Amino acid sequence: MSDSSSIAPRFGNMKALLGIVAGAGASYGLYKLLSSGSLRKSRKGTRTDSPDVSAMKIQPGSLLAKVSGLDVVCARPVTSKTVDVASAGNLEPKHLKMLLSCLQTSNKQEDKCRILLTLGNASAFTINQNLIREYEGIPLIAGFLFDPAADVRVQSLNALNNLSMNIENQEQLTVYVPKVLELIETSPVNSELQLCALRLLTNISVTDKHQHLLKDSIKLYCLCLL
């Protein structure tokens, strides 16, 4: 296969992913988007495709097609059955992998925020919490705690907050406690960034197992709660 035909699917998938994250809301936005009304009916007829476009891997009726709202171009009439999508919990493993891959290569602040927001909403579901851990997504998401943009750090913390509701995930999250404490100390008082960091520490310290990590920062923690 030529380089041009192999690049087209990649751009097609990335365009669809950006469509997914663009539809994400501040709180379970993806859930509201997908459950707000009946799904659109597949368009009748076909289009004439170039070799590059016909190589796209987005299937008509798939989750990517529905959420992105993009027209799906195919080389033959649409025959796939309509898939009922109830919430962000119905994201398939391959979609999570694609989001994590896109997050890893994204350079734009807006794209980072949208992808992190979508992953955060998806992380409200146990099955996705486990999958993201298995796909080594926790270190990737936590890496954005060091991003220079405050908005990106906030979305990273929000995603980690949902991921921290999983006991196994907490084991991986403990290594980022020093950075979270730093964010609490250096962020403006009562800012969204500081509050998100405090929530993450609260979730991690729910069990006795990890409370010792905060013993040297109890004073700071209490002052922020005043």
Automatic annotation (TrEMBL):
Organism: Mugilogobius chulae
Mode of membrane association: Single-pass membrane protein
PANTHER family (UniProt xref): ARMADILLO REPEAT CONTAINING 10, ARMADILLO REPEAT CONTAINING PROTEIN
Location(s) in or outside the cell: Mitochondrion outer membrane
Name of the molecule in the record: Armadillo repeat-containing domain-containing protein
Primary location class: mitochondrion
GO cellular component, one term: mitochondrial outer membrane
Pfam families: Arm_2
Keywords: Membrane, Mitochondrion, Mitochondrion outer membrane, Transmembrane, Transmembrane helix
Signal peptide, first to last residue: none
Positions of the Armadillo repeat-containing domain: 91-221
InterPro entries according to UniProt: ARM-like, ARM-rpt_dom, ARM-type_fold, Armcx_regulator
